[in-house]
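ARCHIVE CARD
SHELF: 3
SLOT: left
DATA:
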Amino acid sequence: LQHLKEHQLHTDIGPDDVLFYFTTCGWMMWNWLVSGLASECTLVLFDGSPFAKRGRLLLDAIDREGITVFGTSAKFIAALEKAGHKPSQDYQLASLKTILSTGSPLSHESFDYVYRDFKQDVCLSSISGGTDIISCFVLGNPTLPVYKGQIQCIGLGMAVEIWNDDSQPVTGEKGELVCTRPFPCCPIGFWNDEDGSRFHKAYFAQFTNIWAHGDYGEITPQHGMVIHGRSDAVLNPGGVRIGTAEIYRQVEKVDAVLDSIVIGQSWEDDVRVVLFVVLREGISLDEELVQTIKATIRQNTTPRHVPAKVLQVADIPRTISGKIVELAVRNVVHGEPVKNTDALANPEALEHFRARPELTQ
C-alpha cells in the first residue's frame, strides 16, 4: 500500500515509465525499486559503482534506456557538480521527468545545479523515510512547486509533525520528526526482541506512544520539510542545537573537499565541533585551507557552527547503503565501543579517527 501510494501518487509512475534507483540489495530502496513492478513500470537495475566512468555510465543509461524516473543520492548529485559534469550539454535527457534523491539532505546548491545544468523542467524530489518502515515520511509531489532546499510534502496518510522539547508541534522551528498516528507499514516489533524493549527504545522512548523517528527537521511556511540531520548526531556547542546538514552544506562549497564528517567532541565541560575532511588527490590540509573552510561556514551560518578543529582523513566510514556514520566516529573519538560494525561498508575507515593527538589539545 505504501509503495503504490508513493509510486503512483507521489511520483506519478505508471505503465509507460522506466524507473531506476541506484541502490544495493541491502538497502530499503531496493525493496522500493522492485515494488515498481506493481505499478507496471519497467525497472532498470545496475550492478557496480555509481561513479564508473566518472559518473557518466549512469548518465548514459538515462538516454540509452529511456529512464523517466532517475533515483540517486544527494552525494552523487554533489559529486557530479564537483566533477564539472553538465548533463544538459552532453545528453538528450528527453525521457527524464523526475529525479529522486535520498540518503542525506539535498543542499540548496544541488537544487541550483540540477535546474541549471541537468534539466530545467524536471521534478526534483528529495525524499526521506526509514529502513524499518521501508518507505517515506516526506517526499515529492508532481503537482506542487519545488522550493530550493526543501522536501515537497508530507506523505499522504502519514500524521507527520515536528515536535519541540515540550512535545508541542511547531512550524518554522527545528525539532524532532514524529508520526502521531499508526500507519500501514509501521513494524510491530523487531526480530529476537521478545519483550519489545529494543523496539520501544528505538522509536517510542522519547514521546509516550508516539513514533519519534530520530530525524531533526523543520516544517517550512510552504508546508515542505527540511531535514537537518539525525537527532543523535545533532551538535550542541554552548547548549545550541545544530544539525550536521547545516555544516555539510557549507563544506560542499569548498572545491578542495571531496567528503566530510562532523561530530561533537566533549571538551572542557562543553561540546566542541570537530570537522574531518577528505581532500582531492594531491591536496594537503594547510592553515590557509583550514581558514577557507572556517570562513565559508562562518559567512553562511553562525560563529557557533565553525569547527574548533578541522582535520584531514583518508576515508570516511559509511553504511552499506552509503550513509555516513557520525555516531560511530564520535564513539571512536571518545574511546567508546562502536556497535554494529557489520552494517559498515568500510569499518577499517574508523581507524583514521582513533587516538588522534590533535583531539587532546
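SLOT: right
DATA:
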Amino acid sequence: MSDTHGRSGPRLPVTIDTTKPHEARFYDYWLGGADNYPVDRALGDRIASYVPTIRTMVRHNRAFLGRAVRYAMTELGITQFLDIGTGLPTARNTHEVAQDVDPAARIVYVDKDPLVLAHARAVMASAKAGKTAFIHADLHDPESILADPAITATLDLDQPVAITLTLIMMYFRDSDDPQGIIARLLEAVPAGSSLTISHPTADFNPTATAQAVDACERAGIAMVPRTRAEIEKLFAGTEIVEPGVVTLEDWHPELAEESLYEVDPDAGPAWIWAGVGRKP
C-alpha cells in the first residue's frame, strides 16, 4: 500500500526547473539514472573533474544505506523508517531492503523535489504486508514533516523509528541549525529509535573538496563539508553504535549484499563519514 501527500511552504518548490541543477538529479546522474537534465549533468561532470571517484563514492553511499537498514532491523529490532532526502527512484530503496527482511516494514519517504514527487508511486511499490508513504516537504522545516498526516497514518510513533539522513545534511549551513533540526526529529520518536547519517568531508582532500564546493555554490546549491568531529556532533542525543563514525565502506561491511552498482575497488576511501546512533 502506498500514498502520496503534498505540502507547500516558502522553501518548497512545486514546479520542476530544468534551467538550474538540482541535488537529487545530479546524484541520479552519477548513479547512472535517466531522471536528470543537461544542466544537472554539466554540474555533475564539473564536480567529477575535481573528484574523479565521485561516482564510486555515491555507489558506496547506496550500499551503506542498505547495510544501515539491515542493521536497524536485525540488530536494533526496528521495522519503521523515516527516510528524509530520499531522492529519485533507484535500485534498492529503503523499503525494498527493509521489506526483504520483514514484509510488514513501514517506510515514510520525504523529499522537497517535485520531480521526486512525480516518481513517488514508482518509489513506493510496497510489499502487501507493509506500507509506504511519501511526503513532499523540506527538512529545513521539520514541523512540516512531523505534522503531515502520512506520519501517523504510516508509522507508530510509540515504537522505535529509524531516521535516515544520507547525504543530505551537507546542504544545511550552520546558520540553518542542523543540530536543532535533527534534535526535533529525535524528540518525535521514542527510545530505541535510530539515526543514520552519511556526510561528505574535506578531511581527505581539502583542495579538491573546496573546488567541488565552489562549483555547487556557483550553481546556487549550498554545500557544507564537515569534519569527522563536526559530524559526530550531529548525533547528539544518541549513542553512536560500533564502529562509530567511519568511512562508508568501513561501516559493517559484513552486512553487504551483492552490489547492484559497479564499484571501483582501487578508488580509495570515500570522502564521506557515516554512522548510526541509537536514542537511549
